[in-house]
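Internal ticket - ligand job 249, zinc ion:
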Amino acid sequence: MSFHAFAALAAKQPLVSYQYEPPPLRPQDVEIEISHSAICHSDLHLIDNDWSSSVYPLVPGHEIVGTVAAVGSECRLTPGQRVGVGWQRSACLQCEFCRAGEENLCPRQEATCVGHMGGFAQRIRLDGRFAFALPASLDSAAAAPLLCGGVTVRMDWITYLLTLKPNGILCLVGAPPGVMQILAGPLLTGQRVICGSDIGSPRMIRETLSFAAEHGIGAQVETAPLEEVNAAIQRVRANQVRYRMVLTR
Ligand SMILES: [Zn+2]
Ligand SMILES: [Zn+2]
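stdout (C-alpha cells):
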C-alpha cells in the first residue's frame, strides 16, 4: 500500500502530488492516519534547501496530529488513539543523552522530514516512542504547532545583544540560514553569553501538552485543506497567516 503525500522535487519548487512505498513497520513503529499538519517555517527552509540538508523528493511536515492506524509488535500505542508528532522521529535510546531523557541531543537522532517522508501526507510511519498521546481536551488544529513551535527569527543581533544587562544570556531557538555576525565588544564588556536551545525532549513535549490541556492553551491557527498546500505555503511566506497555518484532511 503506497502513501499519498505532497512533495517538493527540487529546491524552491511548489509541492506536487506524490506517492511512496512506506518502509516496513518495525516492532516499535506506529503508522498514523494524519488529520492535521501545521506549516512551520522550518518546512519552508527545507523546501528551499536553506540549510543545505534537504533530500528530494522532500515531503515536509513535522507538526503532525492524527490517529494510530497500525502498530508494530512492541509499540505501546493503541489503534484509534489520537497522537502528535514533532521534529524528531527516532533516537538510539542507548547513548548518555537518551538515557538522561535528552533524546533530542542524541547523535543518532532522526528528523521527521529530513531524509524521511514527513507529515504533508495521508499517513506516516515512525518510531512510536516519538508519537505523543494527546490529552482529550486539546483541539487537534491548535495542538499541532505545539509539537515543534520552532519560530524563525531574522534580526539584528547586535541590537538584541545590547538590550541584555551584564551577564545576560541570548538564547537562540530559531535557525536562520547563513552566518550570524556578532561584534566582540558587547560580548566582552557585559560578559554577555550567546547559547542555543534545540527542540524539546520527549519528556518536555509531554509536559507541554499536559500543561496546555490543563490550562486550555492552544496555538492560534488558520486551517486549509491539504490539497491547497501550495496556496497555504504562499500565505505563510507572505506573512499573512494569523498565526499558524494547519493543513487538514
Ligand atoms: Zn541516543
Ligand atoms: Zn517546526
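Auto-summary: The pocket of zinc ion (ligand 1) is lined by residues 91-95, 97-98, 106, 108 (CB under 6 Å). The radius of gyration is 19 Å.
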